[in-house]
Predict the 3D structure of the following.
Amino acid sequence: MIKPLYSSCGIDPIACASYVTFIQQTLQTILPQDFLSALAEKQDLKNNFLNETLPLLLWNAPESAPCTLCVSLLCHADLTSGVGRYLCDILARWLVPGKFINISCIRSLRFSFDTHSNLPLYFHQVLLDIETQQQLDIIKNNRENIHKEIRLSIMAVRHARHVVSVKNLSSEQKKAIIEENITSVMVPPSKTLGHSVFDQIHNFWLHLSSEDKIRQIQDQFTPYFENRPKIFDGSIFQEIRHSILLFGEKFTGMRDLRHVSRLISYQYLFRKTLMHEIVKAPDERHLSLKILRTQVVNSEGIKVLGVLGAMNVLRENELFEERHIEEAMVHCFPLVRKVENSFLLDRRSHDPIRLFYVEIEKLDGSAFTISEMKELKKNLPHTLKENVESILHPVLMPRNEEEIMRNILLLSQQLKYISDLPQVILSFNTQTEQSLQFTVILLRILRDEDLPLPGVFAASGTELKIEDLEVKKVGLLRKRYPKEANVFKIFLDKRKFLRRDFTIDLFKARQELSLELTKIFNGIRDFNGGILSKQQAVFQALRSLVKQPTSHQDFLLENFFYAITPPLRQSLIAPTSLHTLFCLMQEALDADYKEVFFLKAHHEKDQVLTMAASPLSCIKEELSALLIKLKIPSSELSCTTINVRGIYCIGYIYQNRDPHIRSLFCSTLLSCLQEWHTRVKT
């Protein structure tokens, strides 16, 4: 019925024949009768028992101890190297936690059926000594979980190796796999070693291998692993075991076992890829993403999308949790929601990688179309990177009394008539976890009928609360009406001013405070808010020129506008010119970058607008060096620099009445980028 897949060269085939016969007899006892019948009739085996049942794991059922526990495994032989060692290790170490079970016998064979020689299989049988009834009872309780874990591990490892073997890998990905295998051959991770005498001696000998020796053999291993990218060391089983424990029984119980094995294998591959990318570029954000169609058991047949990803955090104070991922999903696709109990996050201590999985469904219950999946795959990576939140430490900044007295004196000089509006200076002070704190200096002419400041706030019905109020008299108007100086703190809810990337829109918070004070006092003069108001007016005019702006365009437009330097130019440049430059930037974001850079110019009266862009960050240094050489006055040149989805966009507004000089500026930019492109290629 079977034939072994080992070579007879170097061994006695007659002596091994009895062993092969024994394995065949064992297989006849464990394989289902319908499968044996299909085998005898030479039926196709690819679409029935093998794909549906393998890996097959069988246990005997001893009733009392001492006894021998027999565990038999039948699985595919391709892409499962190391499974025998893994099975022995997990059975000996984890059947009875805290107790190492002795293995008395191991039988294994790599073979194929005579009638189906193109389907290599692997049989492995382990006999373990169970000494006490207590051990046997523990094994009976743990057997179901261990059984499921072994099957998941084997399926996940096979899928991971299959993905690597069929996928067109880049040279960097191949290099990562090569380095992993060489390291595992020379110095396997110590966490896969136990504490037995054999393992300690083995570990001792492994440490005798130095890094120089690893580098010497790397060139010899490289061709072999490039030709066989599907190879992974047997330690892959131990690495995947962590993912199985993370998923848990409730999650795996409600999902198809093969779908869960795919998730685990992709998590393993994502981690390996990102670790290599982090070493290569530690200061950049890296993301691996996979979108899978699936179906949750007991969900009335509703098709959902599983989103599996891995991303690194750059600093210890960065947060990337469930709410950040869910907000990114809703931002890309507003009509979806998270499937209940479908979120998983692998966040290990001292590990910069965050592995996550979540399932989403449409609000109307319909299935996702191919175009919707493509759109999600295109936009989600950038949105996830933008949704990483940074935790800032509270700032301790003692109040500068000298500056406050100087501002009080300055505002007092502005109050010259009894009808003058209250003079106000608003200064941002600090932030806490929940609020933003502003210091307000308010001077007013105090009439006989005027209420004290707390009474004015109470009568207005405002939600603002005064804290740490200080009231001073700083002189008289017409020798009768006191000039009253009020210094106090106002707290605003910080959540109202969080932008999509979790930065705080401080200008918006200040503007809201100024408007609220205007309502309370029926008008104020915002002494230090004139330029800010002008900037906001220009921005609103620019925003009105954008047709039907989406939330993403709003976010992009804000970043574009407030990145303009010098900052004073934000309130001086015509909104129509800014809109033209913004449209050029959107063209740059849609370019294919076969030529590495994008450059386009738009000529207007007395000025020229140019937009340069590239996925390479060094374009910024190249253009900055050029402008230093050109020595253009800041009064003539405005610039905005923004990074969108990994594309570095640099826009210029050059004001000069001479059209020849404007043309020379554009041609100089083009020549500079062409030379830079040539250097980059070489």
